[in-house]
Amino acid sequence: MTSAIAELFDKITAEPGLGRSLDHEGSANYAVQKTLIKVATDHFVRFGYRRANIAEIALAAGIGKGTIYLHFENKRELFLSCLIAEERELLPQLEIIENFPEEERLRAFLEVTFSFALTASLTRALLSRRQDFAALIEEIDATILKNQDEKFTEYVINKLISPVTHNLDTDDKKTIANVVNLVTLAIGYLPEMAFDLPKQEIRTDDFVKTLAMIIDQGIKNT
Fold first, then answer.
1. Which of 45, 66, 172, 188 qualifies as a cystine partner to 127, CB 3.0-4.6 A?
2. pLDDT band at 197 (very low <50, low <70, confident <90, very high)
């Protein structure tokens, strides 16, 4: 049986204009696409979205530039597909969390997503380059982004917030879900040096667990 988070992910990634998932693993295109995603991700992390060059990505992947366009329409679709591949790595953990007791799901979800925001190389690289982020957003249909946000917010409310809150209306729950999203984005902006200072006792995992615990308790006590 497909998990709710997997179904949500498939719906979001099926939206036109937000990139594409790899073809089925058994298909003839899978190996080429997998290599392209890996090489392109490394390239985007190094140079950013705006400075990235399709010809250089093709050269590093050992294929012709035209081959890339057989699989991805343009640089934007390739970049967004790299983001999809990165985010897909979260799915196994999130699917496990869905089977947790209701009282434990929110905190576990926060820990996993906060940790991802701190360690996902492409997502962090995008957030750290504001002009790149702005340029990419401008190329995506605002309606598509809005639909994506609404679907994810609905999931967070129904699966994580509603089961542990009893005195909040729909608007309050939406506000909390939006705050969680903003906090996750803010974490992505944190420089790595924040966790690599001399004699710094706080570690990344300690930070994530502490922040998740504070937000979890705050929401449950609302």
1. 188
2. very low
**Rounded distance between C-alpha atoms, residue 45 and residue 52, angstroms:** 9
Question: Structural domains in the chain?
Answer: 18-86 (1.10.10.60), 89-220 (1.10.357)
The dihedral sign for the CA sequence 172, 177, 178, 182: positive
- pLDDT tens digits, one per residue of 17-47: 889 999 998 898 999 999 999 999 999 999 9
pTM of the model: 0.88
CA separation for the pair 157, 166 (Å, rounded): 12
Tell me the pLDDT tens digit for each residue of 65-95.
Answer: 999 999 999 999 999 999 999 999 999 999 9
Residue 198's pLDDT is what?
52
